[in-house]
Amino acid sequence: MPEGHTIHRLAADHQTRFAGRPVRAASPQGKFADGAALLHGSVLHAAEAHGKHLFLDFAATGWVHVHLGLYGTVRFGTGPVPAPVGQIRLRLSTPADWSELRGPAQCRLITPEEKAAVAARLGPDPLRSDARPDSAWARVSRSRSSVAALLLDQQVIAGVGNVYRAEALFRQGIDPYRPGRDLTRREWDALWDDLAGLLRAGVRAGRIDTVRPAHEPEAMGRPPRVDDHGGEVYVYRRAGQPCLVCGGEIRGATLAARNLFWCPACQPR
DNA sequence: AGCGGATGTACAG
DNA sequence: TGTACCTCCGCTT
């Protein structure tokens, strides 16, 4: 779940529920107790996402930098704050709304300079209006690394995770092991555009759909399969099963310690 | 009850 | 390249 679309959705939700009002802040779990104490009573100015990083702007107090990592989640609710259940790193609330952050890899107060440093380490994020594929292409077109590795490198392109990687490469018919520098500009632009569309659909739907995403009702081939994670996908976690388009066997492999899935027939060398 | 695995990253070596 | 770390869920016993 926590790929770029999740974080952009979280930014929008924080903005809607909390911006412009002073919030109560607490860390029932205690791991962010000092930060929560500083935040308590301050006003959320804005929330923004860059790739998988979430930034909450509490102007006077500083920025909260959140990275969900593999396990982190945020839950929102309305009305009175429920009694804490389990480990809650950060809870924000107003009289009307509350949020609970659990299990983040990162939750810390940072200065504007530190925030800029985080952003400087990230490649363009297709979900941000300021993003263009050119700077990513500059890296991709010079790299001997596989396009599969490049898509997960947040310094090349920010926000793509393991599910979107597998699905976008499948949809574009690109072999994941092809070196970045062997891609054509046309192929990269198509990959970028597809990722941007899929991510945007993911923000709206709140889940990863790549077979029938909201912006594109037609499926490419056979009927979709609902993934364990609640979305419809072509190849992610489908190793050994038949390809929904050609019927061939989906392959699975480990590449740089991450699970990779692809259809050798639809994504030829 | 206990284990293994996961959509991510950062570090060590 | 391996390992540690966040935490939860589903599977096995």
From TrEMBL:
**UniProt keyword terms in alphabetical order:** DNA damage, DNA repair, DNA-binding, Glycosidase, Hydrolase, Lyase, Metal-binding, Multifunctional enzyme, Zinc, Zinc-finger
Presence of the UniProt keyword Phosphoprotein in the record: no
Reported cofactor(s) = Zn(2+)
Q: Which Pfam families match?
A: Fapy_DNA_glyco, H2TH, zf-FPG_IleRS
Q: Which GO biological-process labels does this protein carry?
A: base-excision repair; response to oxidative stress
Identify the domain of life.
Bacteria
- CDD domains assigned to the protein according to its UniProt record, in alphabetical order: AcNei1_N
Give a yes or no for keyword DNA-binding in this entry: yes
Q: Where is the FPG-type domain?
A: 234-268
Q: What is its EC number?
A: 4.2.99.18
Query: Annotated Gene Ontology MF terms?
Result: class I DNA-(apurinic or apyrimidinic site) endonuclease activity; damaged DNA binding; double-stranded DNA binding; oxidized purine nucleobase lesion DNA N-glycosylase activity; oxidized pyrimidine nucleobase lesion DNA N-glycosylase activity; zinc ion binding
Q: Where is the Formamidopyrimidine-DNA glycosylase catalytic domain?
A: 2-99
SUPFAM superfamilies in the record, alphabetically? Answer: Glucocorticoid receptor-like (DNA-binding domain), N-terminal domain of MutM-like DNA repair proteins, S13-like H2TH domain
Catalytic activity reported = 2'-deoxyribonucleotide-(2'-deoxyribose 5'-phosphate)-2'-deoxyribonucleotide-DNA = a 3'-end 2'-deoxyribonucleotide-(2,3-dehydro-2,3-deoxyribose 5'-phosphate)-DNA + a 5'-end 5'-phospho-2'-deoxyribonucleoside-DNA + H(+)
Q: What family is reported?
A: Belongs to the FPG family.
Can you say what this protein is called?
A: Endonuclease 8 1
Q: Which organism is it from?
A: Streptomyces oceani
